[in-house]
Hints:
The chain is an alpha/beta fold. It contains 20 helices and nine strands. Among the domains are: 19-101, no CATH class; 112-270, Ubiquitin-like (UB roll) (Roll), CATH 3.10.20.370; 297-366.
Amino acid sequence: MKDTQQALAKYGNLRLHKFASNCAEVMSAFHAKNKLITRRGILSTINSLYDPLGFLATVIIQGKLLSRKIVSETVEWDQPLYNDTAAEWKSWIYTLIAIETLRIPRTYVPYFSKTATKELHVFSDASEKSIAAFAYLRTTDSSGEPNIGFILGKAKVVPTSGHTIPRLELSAAVLAVEITQTIVDNLDLHIDNVKFYTDNKVVLGYISNETRRFFIYVANRVEKIRKFSSPNQWNYVPTSRNPTDSGTRSVPAHEIHSSKWLLGPRQLLFSEQKNSENMYQLIDPEEDGETRATVTVAKTFATPERQGIGTDRFNRFSNWTSLVRAIAFLERFSRLHGSKQAAPVTSSEGFSNAENFILISAQYEVYGDEIDCIKRQEQIHKRSPITNLNPFLDERGLLRVGGRIAKYDLNLRQKKTLIVPGRHHIAILLVRHYHDKIKHQGRHFTDGAIRSAGFWIVGAKRLIFSLIHKCVTCRKLRGKTECQIMSDVPEDRLEPSPPFTNV
């Protein structure tokens, strides 16, 4: 086999590296050297240590750290190691012999069948090189005598760079929650209480925080922690009394028999452990790079009320043309202070600007929330009276009706009519204006004239009916005029109206 391996490597550039034999001497001849002094052998040795419950977590973590050290030296997979790292690796392998004498009790605690209460205590800790979390079961019998036993432990190597100690401590807390979930899901026991411990008060402040926001890294991990646990389950423990501290520093195999990490924290035997009632505060949140700065936002709208005129003053006008003319005059008067070349009041541009100002004022007053949603590209609340109109804002900030009618060959005001609040005073002025304009011919003609002018009054039919019914001019006409007749006839019985006629 040796000759075949060498011949294939020399003449065929082929490497034979997997062998199987029932002879231990043969297997050791091909694998022992590789496992000890090559990167591939080191990784194979570490993975061959089967320890799903974490009894050897503090021992194996040292081997994983040595493996990382070798990787950082950019050593090839099968390149022999003859430096100090190889000597350190051989020394660690030699200490593993002490594991043969390790004995683990079959039950978690003595007299398990006589226990009265069962509590789960989970500790977490982190260092610059690794994080760890260990879980212990604390029981008491009918006489109140406590016992403690190791359940599950886990240790991980941390990323090489880019992590602060608070971040690593927070990751260790997440690991504690994860192993707790595993225990609760798989352990066929009723746990009366679950408590978590960490020796980092920054992490406790993160978990208890209710007022500040964090950046993504901390926010995601705090969310994971609080999804399975509550802040009052987390407690502070000094580093000297934290058994997980040995899991982050690694323990030689010959010291495992007396390690407090495997025997459990003795303080759990001497005092009744109570959940923390005090919420831990954030430590220097203004200096902490993980905490978002507090920003106060003042939101204002450029509505007429903040420009010196309120829409309540529109109620003083009983005629749409008078209102538009008054606003146009005010606009011209304000511009005269800055320029002597202001447009005359009767110009079409001045009237158009005044009309837009009136409409924007009313729209912001009634549909301010809807306009905010449109600006943020959010969906309008389904209870809004203009939801079905598919509204949008044009380039001037006016609220218009949307829809597929834009494809028709019509002008902008006919394709995308301006939305007018039906309960606002300007809606009354518009109905009166166009009802007079069509010579009081009835509700449908009035509605058509308003639509043709480019206005969509919300609830127009009811408003038009109400105003026509009160129209003084219609009452003065002889007999029942057309506007009165068409106001009285139900909508489903109406026939097509004749062309416009003078009354």
